[in-house]
Design a protein that fits this description.
single chain, alpha+beta, 7 strands
Length: about 100
């Protein structure tokens, strides 16, 4: 059964166009998100505690106290981009500070 998202209050739901995020951990505490095989963001630990999350173009989504909070920020960004019709940026790589 296809997943559905609401496009606006009172609107009929539409089929989800973007695959859900998949998470990969190529190194301890580093998490990479992909959607349909495309880079969708990452979360990395911060010295002193917490995590930073980066979106698909490498822009910082902020610092978060826990890994779960950083991953939720990436999930929320993906949902916002989908609602706005923004595509993932193919070939995007994370930037140190964007």
């Amino acid at each position: 059964m296809p997943q559905h998202v609401r496009t606006r209050p009172g609107a009929r739901s539409a089929p989800r166009r973007r695959p859900p995020l998949r998470w990969h951990s190529p190194a301890d505490e580093l998490w990479i998100a992909t959607a349909g095989g495309e880079y969708a963001g990452m979360a990395e630990p911060v010295r002193g505690g917490g995590y930073r999350a980066f979106g698909p173009t490498g822009g910082s989504l902020g610092s978060f106290p826990t890994l779960g909070a950083a991953l939720m920020a990436l999930e929320g960004r993906a949902e916002d981009d989908e609602r706005a019709g923004r595509p993932l940026r193919s070939g995007a790589t994370p930037a140190a500070d964007a």
